[in-house]
């Protein structure tokens, strides 16, 4: 079979994270490990796509972790050198071939195309790629 | 603020889905709505990144939904015309600006760079973008 990377795709960010976190060195590893609240600033062109999202909703935010090293395939889990190296796909390391961040956050407030969300570990300026609802039970979809 | 899409990123697929589903018209809307088991065929170059994944693990699979219409910002949820239109970011519609599929599946078996997984609604040939572990409790990470 041919190499799958022969056909590439272009991610066009739809907004940016606004956060007090300015460096990955200061950022918690996951949102529930002490991450601050942050703002998602969506581009005006995609504003209409937010219709149906309300304060209190839990959402899945997808970002592009633009500081990641895409050549990395093995890491010490959680950067802990006492742990043996493992494949990146068995970890949540940000460095990986396609560094897409996956963040489950709660919407605290929504003001036009600006969403205030809880506990986000992505740093200031991180490109936003997608927003999805958390899936409920089958009969609630 | 400048339009966030001024800086684009390139997704380079790391493999493909092999599935009996050949058309999006036949595919269930979510994996837990009757989707078949499938294979994830990873490219040999990223094989080492799978180290640490074992049969029985739950993983989060990210795909690029290559049949999606990226211009869509509003949809009838679940394609149900009796439901009012909503913004795509409040739905799991595949058509959206960056059509990244998010699938929680269980690894049934692993054979080199070929993973057999349960209940996947992505169709045959869907590009694989990333694989992540499902996060456990904080003290198990």
General description of the model:
The structure is a homodimer of 141-residue chains. The first copy, chain A, is mostly beta strands. Chain A has a single domain, classed as YaeB-like (Elongation Factor Tu (Ef-tu), domain 3), CATH 2.40.30.70. In chain A, 0% of the residues lie in helices and 33% in strands. The first copy, chain A, has a six-stranded antiparallel β-barrel. Chain A has a two-stranded antiparallel sheet with strand order 5-6. In chain A, β7 (100-111) and β8 form a beta hairpin. β1 (9-11) of chain A pairs antiparallel with β1 of chain B.
Notable characteristics:
globular, 0% helix, 141 residues, homodimer, 6-stranded antiparallel beta barrel
- SSE order of chain A: EEEEEEEEE
Structure annotation, total helices of chain A:
0
The CATH class name of chain A reads Mainly Beta
* Tally of domains of chain A: 1
**The CATH homologous superfamily of chain A:** YaeB-like
Mean pLDDT rating of chain A: 93
Q: Biggest β-sheet of chain A, characterized?
A: 6 strands, antiparallel, barrel
Architecture of chain A, CATH level 2? Beta Barrel
- Compute the number of strand runs of chain A: 9
Report the helical percentage of chain A: under 10%
Shape of chain A: globular
Please, what is the oligomeric state?
homodimer
Q: Largest interface here, residues on each chain?
A: A-B, 60 and 60 residues
Order of strands, widest sheet of chain A? 2-3-8-7-4-9
How many angstroms separate the termini of chain A?
37 Å
Low-pLDDT regions of chain A: none
Range of strand content of chain A: 25-35%
């Amino acid at each position: 079979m041919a190499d799958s990377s022969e056909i590439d795709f272009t991610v066009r960010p739809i907004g940016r994270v606004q956060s007090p976190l300015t460096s990955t060195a200061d950022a918690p590893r996951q949102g529930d490990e002490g991450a601050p609240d942050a703002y998602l600033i969506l581009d005006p062109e995609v504003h209409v796509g937010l219709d149906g999202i309300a304060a209190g909703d839990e959402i899945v935010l997808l970002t592009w972790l633009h500081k990641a090293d895409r050549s990395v395939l093995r890491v010490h889990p959680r950067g802990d050198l006492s742990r043996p190296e493992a494949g990146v796909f068995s970890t949540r390391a940000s460095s990986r071939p396609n560094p897409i961040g996956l963040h489950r956050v709660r919407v605290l407030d929504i003001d036009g195309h600006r969403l205030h969300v809880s506990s986000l570990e992505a740093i200031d300026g991180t490109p936003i790629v997608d927003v999805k609802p958390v899936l409920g039970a089958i009969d609630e979809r």
